[in-house]
Amino acid sequence: MNEIVFQNRNEQFAEVVSMIQHTRNEVVRLANTSLIDLYWRIGKYIFDKISVSEWGDGVVKQLADYIERNSPETKGFSDKNLWRMKQFYETYNGMDEKLSTLLRQISWSNNLTIMSRCKTHEEREFYLNLCIHDHLSFRQLNRQIDSALYERNKIGAPKLSPVLREIAPQAEQLFRDQYIMEFIGGKEYQHENSMKAALVKQMKRFILELGKDFLFIDEEYRLQVGNSDFRIDLLFYHRELQCLVAFELKTEKFKPEHLGQLNFYLEALDRDVRKPKENPSIGILLCKDKDDTVVEYALSRSLSPTMVAEYQLCLPDKTLLQQKLHDIIEQDS
Question: Which residues pair with 306 in a beta bridge?
Answer without folding.
Answer: 283
